[in-house]
Each structure stands twice: as C-alpha cells, then as structure tokens.
Amino acid sequence: DTGVSQNPRHKITKRGQNVTFRCDPISEHNRLYWYRQTLGQGPEFLTYFQNEAQLEKSRLLSDRFSAERPKGSFSTLEIQRTEQGDSAMYLCASSLGSGNTEAFFGQGTRLTVV
Amino acid sequence: AQSVTQLDSQVPVFEEAPVELRCNYSSSVSVYLFWYVQYPNQGLQLLLKYLSGSTLVKGINGFEAEFNKSQTSFHLRKPSVHISDTAEYFCAVSLNTGGFKTIFGAGTRLFVKA
Predict the structure, then answer these.
(1) Cα B60 vs. chain centroid, distance in angstroms?
(2) What is the secondary structure of A23-64 as a DSSP string?
(3) Alpha-carbon gap, residue A79 to A8, rounded angstroms
(4) Tens digit of each residue's pLDDT (9 = 90 or more) over B22-45
(5) Mean pLDDT of chain B
(6) What does the pLDDT read at residue A99?
(7) Is B96's CB within 8 Å of A110's CB?
(8) Which residues from chain A sit within 8 angstroms of residue B94, using beta carbons?
(9) Helix (H, G, I), strand (E, B) or coil at B96
(10) What is the pLDDT averaged over residues A99-110?
C-alpha cells in the first residue's frame, strides 16, 4: 500500500478557471477528508465522506467548491471560477471507520491562482 | 465548539537541547489528541496519538507527549533535538463522535540551530 495519493502535486491556474484535484485513499479506508492549508496556518477542515456519502461540509466550502466520491473509493475536489484567495495547499486524508480516528494524509496539491 | 491553541508560533533551539512545544485544547466532548509533523512541501506525518489509557504517550523520532485532562493540555517534548527535527508541528484533536474529523492548531515552527 502506497498510502494516500493526491494528483496533481502542483497546479498553477489563471483566475476564473476551473480546477479539479484527485485523491486516492488507502484502499480499505471508508472515511475520506479534505482540508485546506494556507501559509503559516494549520489545515482547515473542508468536508468528509463516509464511503460515497458526503456527511459534512464546512462553511469554508463555498458554492464554487464541490467534492465527490462516486464509488466510495477515490474522491475529486473541484473549484469553479478560481480566485486568488483559493491559493493554498489542499490536503486529503483517509481513515478506517469503526472508531479508529487516526487519519493518514496525502502530500497535498498546491494550488496557485495567478 | 472544539479548538486547539498552540502557544508558540516559533521555537528556536540549539541542537541536542531539550524542547517542549505547548498545546491546549477546548472541547465539550471527549476527544482524541494527536501531534503531526510537516516537512517543507510535504503532507502531515503522525508523530503520536492519545486515545485512552496512560497519559504519557511515546511516538516516533524520540518524541513524547503528556495528556493533562485538568489543564486540557497535550504538550510535546523531546529530550535532545537534532537538526533534522526542524519542521512545522501541529497539535490536533479528533472528536470522539460522528465523523471523527480532525481540528488542527495553527502550528509551531521548530527551528534547530547547530
């Protein structure tokens, strides 16, 4: 098992463009989380999935953000009409269910909006 | 609501000296506690966790932390640091309920000097 995988590692986009990131969790993990981390800050929770169901969304997740986990395996995070304030590291994590709370993190996707 | 406060944004220390990184949390429900380390342009790596039992928890790379329920603290310690310990350290709590999402502190930058 290679751990949580995120693609791409880096993305530079022009303001107003749409971007999509992918996260492949550890195979047996049924929980998947998205976080955003800006410079000098800790990761901030965005949303989480239990299998394919999106069970919680942060108020940070504006209408321009959408996340999916269609088959309960990989997940995508799409940002529409990107703004400069969206520039951040987007981290994905996964964990087992049944009360085990240790989350394993991917290396993140660094988004730069120019 | 739950929150995590890391009391020092930066901690400079000489190599082979001891270090303590401070963390306080607040929560109305029981939580699990974690310390993660992040090297530049990398994801988060778990150093140690407290779920229950002994309040002194040992982790990787010679780090340990002590859970103090009365003071709602979970300070991280290492008796002798190395240059390679230079990184960002995040204290985090995970709610012992629901989706077990993780709430992070703002981080402490440990800078080990030769």
Answers:
(1) 12
(2) EE--TT--EEEEEEE-TTS--EEEEEEETTEEEEE-TTS-TT
(3) 14
(4) 999 998 777 889 999 999 878 899
(5) 91
(6) 62
(7) no
(8) 101, 103
(9) coil
(10) 83
Indicate the SS3 state at residue B62. helix
What is the pLDDT at residue B30?
78
pLDDT, position B42: 81
State whether residue B60 is helix, strand or coil: helix
Q: For residues A61-83, give the mean pLDDT.
A: 94
Over residues A28-49, mean pLDDT = 92
For residue A95, give the nearest of B51, B100, B105 by CB distance: B100
User: Which chain B residues are Cβ-neighbours of A99 within 8 angstroms?
Assistant: 100
Q: What are phi and psi of B85, to 5 degrees?
A: -80, -5
Q: Give the best residue of B101, B104, B109 to mutate against chain A (max A CB count within 10 A).
A: B101
Give the three-state DSSP class for B50.
strand
Q: What whole-number distance in Å separates Cα of residue A106 and Cα of residue A3? A: 7
> In the structure, what pLDDT confidence band is assigned to residue A38 with cuts at 50, 70 and 90?
very high
Closest to B36 in 3D by CA, of B7, B12, B16, B65 = B65
| Nearest-angstrom CA–CA distance, A93 and A109 | 12
Using an 8 Å Cβ cutoff, are B104 and B91 in contact? yes
